[in-house]
Every structure is written in C-alpha cells, then in structure tokens.
Amino acid sequence: MNHQLEQHEIIIAGLGVLTLLVLLYILWRLHQSKEYPEFDLVDLLMENGKASKFAIFLLGAFIATTWVLVYQTIHNALTEWLFAAYGAFWVVPVVTKLLNGAQDKTK
What we know:
The chain is mainly alpha-helical and about 110 residues long. It is built from three helices and two strands, in the order H-E-E-H-H.
C-alpha cells in the first residue's frame, strides 16, 4: 500500500496541525494566566482533586478517535457511519451537558 499524499491532503494536514498548535498555545496561556486562576489543565486528568484513571482513559480515547476522524478525512475515506459515531460519542454528550447547564441557570 504505497500512497502518495496529494497536495490538498498536505495542506489539510498542515492546517490541522497549525490549528492544534494554536489551540494548545491558547490553552497553555490560559493555564498560566493570573486573570483566570480557576482554569487548570490538570483538571482534565483529575476528579475531586485526585488523579483519575477514567479521566486519563477518556482523554486518550478522545484524542485517538479524533485522530481517526482526521486521518480518514485526509485520505478521503471518511464514511457517514464513522462521522455519525464520532458525533454520538463526543459531540452529543457535550451539547447535552451544555444545554442542561443552561437550563439549570434559568431556574
């Protein structure tokens, strides 16, 4: 399986890497900021102030499935069921939590 990357695939991958680096830089700046002391990147790996195996596993699963989605997109192999599964696993729960949080604030 000898696949040469096309120019548009390289551009898409480059933009993805650039976007990731910018996002990581912004998160790091927020983490270091004295204006937002409540923002702590370590919270991604902890629950109730203790290291959480589940949180670490969940973060790893998110990174792995996101990479699969990006890889499939770059290689023009993304299928509807894979996109729907990604949405079901990651997007729907986040949107639901956000909407439930917004409803709690209005009560």
